[in-house]
Design a protein that fits this description.
The chain is α/β, with parallel strands linked by helices. Helix content is 36%, strand content 14%. Helix 11 (439-459) packs antiparallel against helix 14 (520-535), helix 11 packs antiparallel against helix 18 (598-607) and helix 14 runs antiparallel to helix 17 (574-587). The two termini are 42 Å apart.
């Protein structure tokens, strides 16, 4: 107000065109900011569980630091409302009035219902809605007119029906992630040359993969049993390109007659063969049985021993005197059922072995399963074992591998789960026969492990620690490289001496000295896993030589490179890598009481981004000179506040 009075008292200044122009811009900016605030507050009112948005108040403009609001030059260009437990209605009509809005991210919340109508937002460039509970079919016109859309993430929801064909018409689309939904039908013919990140794994899609997508990694299409064609190994039927079968070739009548005669002769010959084998049936029964047994592939001699034990139990294990054909106990009602004999006679392959036993991959009815054999659980009673397994069987989280079934025998136990396509994190980090993991994938794995670990701590509060055996080889990777925690919650059923010796792979100082286990034991192990992922060095091997956490601290202080060079990552991601490194070190503090709680760790990990900013939008509002300058490693590390 004082500025306005000063202008009115000095006509010579008020008559200046430049001064009037500056005043006009100032008033427009204030008006624009007020308008954005009103719209965002109206949008907030449509949401539920908005405690995380407590700083959205009329007393401050949105660009002064409202949580999740991204601004440039005083304008709101993005909303990044992730991991906030939000649900309710996404008021797209109100958001459409934010003229500068270009990016929306509501990942990792609890939104339900159908996909919001985004067609009013023709200027949007990125839309991230993954890891919610959206459901239903998406209309084919859902993205009509969104010519600026570059990135669309809808993974891990419950969408059904066909993939909208309009997605294949968006000229600037470079990322499309639709995995872990229930899409069905054929994949549209995407012809965008810039499409680099594409994933439709774990849906119900069918038919031939379009030629334009054949250059992508096969993992982008895993989990769709009816898909065929490159890059998958499954070839398409010869009539896969038949356009609905409406065109049929007409054969001459003479050809049809000849074919009919040949078929008749073949049927007569087949009848003779059947009579011949019926006559020999009695003589060949015993020989046929032994031949069948010899033809069944077995993974190893110890698996054959299991088969003989199962056969003996099946022959006399029933109280009624009848053979027990189903020795497996299934924990999931919707699981495809099979008996012990089917499992042990399936073709098998040894995946690995440890002090606890061996792990196999078994092919069963066209489906791959993982079978883990444990030898050091013979001190637990059948009742206690069954009760504990049913408790673990109730686990249901996208980053925790569900146990499908188990088998109890006094001397040994079997746990059965679905096979993970990309094997374990340890194999991906340290085996030479697997491609290296880039920074984006490693960050995704860390975040998934963190969420899975927090889930176990919430669901198994009486277990100390809830996982107890966290290490890289017990982090499996599915077709989309999402992590699955395995071998969790086993400490109560493993023989005490074996548990103390081998269960905690990354041994914390207090565990080494006293054998004491606390909830912070998992925190230490998670920190060690973070350091292993970032450095590429095996945490288990380092335990026997040099403490990995101590090595990282020393290397950072000496400005020695610590990051795995195979991880890659641009300069825009170095700061985020350093933040994650510091989180890992904070988990590995020698004093257990000084380590953060697992919930705090997860919150900090969720704040880590793949890049320090979004290049697509930052470049629209900031010049190259505003970008972060490179500094020494130790300087970067000291400047980060966690």
């Amino acid at each position: 107000m004082m500025v306005q009075r000063h202008v009115l008292s000095e006509p010579t200044r008020s008559s200046s065109p430049i001064f009037l122009l500056l005043l006009l811009f100032h008033n427009l900016a204030v008006s624009h900011s007020q308008s954005d605030a009103q719209l965002l507050l109206k949008f907030k009112a449509s949401l539920r569980n908005t405690a995380a948005l407590a700083d959205w108040t009329p007393s401050q403009p949105p660009c002064s630091g409202w949580k999740g609001v991204l601004c440039a030059s005083g304008h709101v260009w993005g909303l990044q409302l992730e991991n906030m437990g939000l649900h309710g209605l996404i008021d797209v009509e109100t958001l459409a009035k934010l003229s500068d809005l270009r990016s929306l991210s509501f990942k990792n919340n609890d939104f339900q219902g159908s996909l919001p109508n985004l067609t009013r937002h023709g200027a949007l460039k990125t839309v991230f809605l993954s890891n919610n509970k959206f459901s239903g079919e998406i209309p084919d016109t859902a993205f009509y007119g969104m010519q600026s859309l570059k990135k669309l993430h809808l993974a891990n929801n419950k969408f059904t029906g066909a993939i909208p064909a309009t997605l294949a018409t968006l000229p600037r689309l470079i990322e499309l992630t639709l995995q872990d939904n229930e899409f069905e039908g054929q994949i549209p013919n995407f012809r965008q040359q810039g499409l680099k990140n594409f994933n439709v794994s774990n849906n119900r899609l069918a038919g031939q993969i379009p030629q334009s997508l054949s250059h992508l990694d096969a993992s982008s299409f895993y989990g769709n049993e009816a898909l065929c064609g490159a890059p998958l190994d499954q070839a398409c039927p010869s009539n896969a390109d038949d356009k609905g079968g409406s065109h049929h070739r007409r054969f001459p009548e003479t050809t049809i007659a000849v074919v009919a005669i040949l078929l008749g002769a073949a049927l007569i010959a087949l009848l003779g063969v059947c009579i011949f084998f019926v006559c020999r049936k009695k003589r060949s029964q015993q020989g046929g049985a032994s031949a069948s047994a010899a033809a069944t592939p077995a993974a190893t001699a110890d698996l054959n021993e299991m088969e003989r034990g199962a056969g003996a139990a099946a022959a006399g294990g029933s109280e009624s005197g009848k053979p027990s054909v189903r020795l497996l106990t299934f924990l999931k009602e919707d699981s495809e059922k099979f008996d012990m004999q089917e499992l042990l006679k399936a073709s098998a392959e040894v995946l690995g072995s440890s002090v606890f036993g061996s792990t196999y991959k078994a092919g069963l009815n066209g489906k791959k399963m993982t079978v883990k054999r444990f030898k050091h659980m013979n001190q637990v009673s059948k009742e206690d074992f069954n009760e504990h397994m049913r408790r673990l069987g109730r686990m249901s989280h996208q980053n925790v591998q569900p146990i499908v079934a188990f088998y109890y025998k006094k001397e040994e136990k079997l746990l059965v789960a679905e096979f993970a396509h990309n094997v374990s994190l340890a194999a991906r980090l340290h085996a030479n026969d697997h491609p290296s993991l880039d920074w984006a994938t490693r960050l995704k794995i860390v975040k998934g492990v963190a969420k899975g670990l927090l889930y176990l701590h919430n669901e198994l509060p009486s277990l100390t620690p809830a996982h107890g055996h966290l290490k890289a080889s017990n982090v499996l990777l599915d077709a989309a490289f999402s992590p699955l925690l395995t071998d969790y919650g086993l400490i109560p059923i493993v023989n005490k001496e074996q548990a103390q010796e081998n269960m905690v792979a990354y041994k914390s100082p207090e565990y080494k000295e006293t054998g004491k286990l606390t909830k912070k034991t998992d925190v230490w192990s998670f920190g060690y896993l973070i350091l292993e992922i970032l450095t590429g060095k095996s945490g288990v091997e380092q335990q026997a030589e040099v403490d990995l956490a101590a090595w990282v601290e020393t290397a950072v202080a000496d400005d020695t490179p610590v990051f795995d060079p195979e991880m890659g990552g641009s300069n825009h991601g170095q700061g985020e890598m350093m933040k994650l490194l510091k989180i890992g070190l904070s988990c590995c503090q020698a004093d257990a009481d000084s380590r953060p709680e697992i919930r705090e760790v997860v919150e900090k990990v969720e704040e880590i981004k793949e890049k320090e900013f979004d290049e697509d939008f930052y470049s629209s509002y900031a010049s190259e000179s505003d970008m972060r300058s490179s500094r020494g490693l130790s300087d970067d590390f000291k400047s980060i506040n966690i």
